[in-house]
Specification:
The chain has about 80 residues and is an alpha+beta fold. It contains 2 helices and 2 strands.
């Protein structure tokens, strides 16, 4: 599935699964300025069909308060943040 990503990507197996490396070194970006590292975005698009979606009522992130929004929607948006 990842064959067409190019030489800057690697797979590393570990006891808990597989880590996909995008680029030689970690990079910083700014989602608010639409500055997502290209390799991260490319990998995110490629893995989109495999990305989990939390069902209503479940979440990874917790909203800091009722005015901040739905925790499930916040979690799913965070998981898709590099798209």
């Amino acid at each position: 599935m990842l064959d067409d990503l190019g030489a800057g990507f690697g797979l590393h197996e570990y006891d808990g699964g597989v880590l996909v490396q995008a680029g030689a070194m970690p990079e910083l970006g700014d989602r608010e300025l639409d500055e997502v590292p290209a390799a991260y975005q490319q990998l995110s698009w490629k893995l989109r069909p495999l990305r989990m979606q939390y069902p209503d009522g479940w979440s990874l992130l917790r909203s800091p308060g009722p005015a901040a929004g739905d925790s499930t929607a916040l979690t799913n948006a965070w998981l898709a943040r590099l798209d």
